[in-house]
Amino acid sequence: MPNIAFINGKWSPVSSAKISIEDRGFQFGDGVYEVIRTYGKNLFSLNEHLARLQVSAKALEIEMPYPMEMLEKIVLLGCKKSHHKDTLIYIQLTRGVAPRGHAFPKKNRSTLVMTFRPNKPLSDAMRNEGVSVISTEDIRWARCYVKSLNLLPNVMAREAAKRVGAFESLFVRDGKVMEGAGSNVFAVHGQKVTTPPAGTYILSGITREIVLKIGRENGLKMCEADLSLDDFYAADELFLTGTTVEVLPVVRLNDKWTPSKKPGEVTRGLYEAFHKYIGT
Ligand code: PDD
Question: 20 to 30 A Cα–Cα from 149, which one of 29, 112, 120, 180?
Fold first, then answer.
């Protein structure tokens, strides 16, 4: 099945899709993005993702090249054209092509790229046995709610995790755990489930919001509060959330294991409730 790309109105295979070397996304990382997936034919939280794209673009004063309804249509058409069972869609929006110069160009047209590839599920072993994470200093800027193309701190953090056989790095800023390099994070203490508060220092994940909601509906005490690394070490269970990881158990943080060294009941319950919520 083809991996296809949409670039400013033109469709092509991903392998031959091209943008200019003068695109500001390439020159400066001057752009924003979204990652969306389907479950079969159903798009997961499309409107929420497009709304967040709009928030990110507005924060950087990047013009949206199409109205929302049109973006929605392009996403749906791409999914139809690519025929994957579960599709992973990347939307990248940049300030467009212009001769190099840091300040905004006077006249430019934003570049909109979308790619449609198969979504590769995580292994059963990761889901059943849980993953390891490490902590790393949060060297990102102060507008982490913007899903910016500038991902160097995230790239370095993920590489650091990979080098020690861990799945994810958790960013720690001023002694507080913020989120993963590509996921949000939760700590479970008894029946209390806490995640760092939304604000400018984390990307407020769409999966995170859903998990907060379904946790409450399932009688758990869901909280948004600052947590230190020690609070994380003292947790009964830990888990990550995100579009691709869904609800993923964490059994080890740095050199410390969770008490049972196995995915816990609260995490498992939330994973099941999440799938019930999305109808899979
Ligand atoms: N990452 N925090 C960060 C820094 C992220 O990059 C992501 C998503 C999340 C979770 O957000 P959501 O639940 O809306 O997917 C939190 C995507 C999947 C990525 O960059 O590939």
Answer: 120
Ligand 1 atom closest to Cα of 154?
Answer: 4
Sign of CA dihedral 195, 199, 202, 204: positive
| Per-residue model confidence (pLDDT) at position 53 | 98
CA 108 to chain centre: 28
Instruction: Round the CA-based radius of gyration of the chain to a whole number and report it.
Output: 19
On the CB side of 10, CA atoms within 13 Å amount to 9
Side-chain-side CA neighbours of residue 210 (13 Å): 22
Q: How confident is the model at residue 1 (pLDDT cuts 50, 70, 90)?
A: low
Helix axes 68-82, 46-59, angle to 10 degrees: 130
Q: Is 162 a catalytic residue?
A: no
Q: How far apart are CA 49 and CA 53, in angstroms?
A: 6
Six token digits for residue 61 = 């004063």
**Residue from 146, 184, 213, 277 whose mutation best tests the ligand 1 pocket (most atoms within 8 A of CB):** 184
What is the rounded average pLDDT for all residues in the chain? 97
State residue 193 phi and psi, 5-degree precision: -120, 115
The Cα 122–Cα 118 span in angstroms is: 13
> Relative to the CA of 243, which ligand 1 atom is closest?
15
Let me know: does 64 contact 118? Beta carbons within 8 Å: no
Q: How far is the CA of 106 from the centre of ligand 1 (A)?
A: 32
